[in-house]
Amino acid sequence: MTMELPRLVATGLRVELEKKAIIPGLDFAVRRGLFTAIVGPNGCGKSTLLRTLIKLLIPAEGQVELDGRDIRRRSARDIATQVALLPQSAIAPNGISVRDLVARGRYPHQGLLRQWSRADENAVNGALAATGMDEFADRLVEELSGGQRQRVWVAMVLAQQTDIALLDEPTTFLDISHQYSLLQLVRELVSTQGRTVVAVLHDLQQAARYADHLVVMKDGSIVAEGAPRTVLTPELVTEVFGIACRLINDEVTGAVIVVPDALPRPDVSMISSLSRAAEAG
Q1: How far apart are CA 224 and CA 222, in angstroms?
Q2: Is residue 188 part of a domain?
């Protein structure tokens, strides 16, 4: 069997923000038809990588190619018909309804010769149902809780119906039930529809359970990648996250579970200082 080449590839990527190299030099290929989870400590460049992959950031060096073409030579609309992004902090316009926000996922498919169609309507309704937001379709987004708003943004990405979806911390604000529901939905999209998904996740257990491919970042570089069971080791977790741990196998899911050992005790003097400051205030 011949393995299909990745559609989205970053080569020699160097990304700077305020003249500081957030990603000093990185090669990355989005694996076609897989659920890839990117993990790593805060500030290691995970979100910067996703934003660069979709041309929201332009690298100082290197390039990103979509289907063999430099994305700098492709229009934003063209990219959006093939790659969708769920940003880390999305802000909805005031006074917009849930349905109207989700419908914006169809904008890249519109044009002078293609207006709103039944296919667009079906895509929006399907996305609302998949995220459990259909009953809130006529509500204003600003009236919803943080978790509900996050599900609206996920629905918009689903309505976009791209082959590739980049999700930056998609479980933010969601309670644990909706976190697992969302990740199961992503898992099914990949398994049954052949979608390609890359998601930044903070929970190692969730990444190990749902992802096909795990990418571990530290200081703007990829330090390990591969199947979660192969990549995750106690030594790697200690190196990247600074905690000692043990790994055990989940007998039900077969996934690896990371069990932290005793963590450093908090600085008691600092806690006392905070308490005194609070009392004085």
Answers
A1: 6
A2: no
